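Notes from the 1:1 (GR / supervisor)

We went over the backlog. Supervisor wanted to see one worked example end to end before approving the batch request, so GR pasted a single chain during the call. The sequence is below; no edits were made to it. Supervisor asked that the structure be written out right there so they could see what the output format looks like.
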Amino acid sequence: MSTVDKNMMVQLAVGTMNKKRIGCLVTIDEEGVKGILTERDLLIRVLEAGKDPKTTMVSDVMTQSIVFGNPTMPLAEATRLMFQNGIKKLPILENNRLVGLVTLTDIARATSCDKRTIELIEALSNMHKISSSQEDINI
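Structure output shown during the call:
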């Protein structure tokens, strides 16, 4: 789990993600967790929007409305919460302090899933995106 200051420039945040080989950073400021910066945020709000990552702040492109879990919730509840909200990453807070991050990949590994099951979980997590984007595609 890695964090980044919400006032950092996107290019530096991407460098951190690449260096650590991770798909997201939880964004923070002096008051605590403010959002999450995901690969999808970068694709949609930076690349597709044509923004310059050298001059764009993380706070301008991060997802601000995030869903949190807690460290005592059962794995099944965390999984259900993620699917209900269409998210792949669930920051875990305890006493308003970030203590962890659960991803769909973590859940697949924890439940000893084989590769095919992991692929199905990833496909299910993208189903709402696939069905809504089909309307935009002329085949």
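Supervisor's comment: The chain has seven helices and five strands.
Batch request approved.
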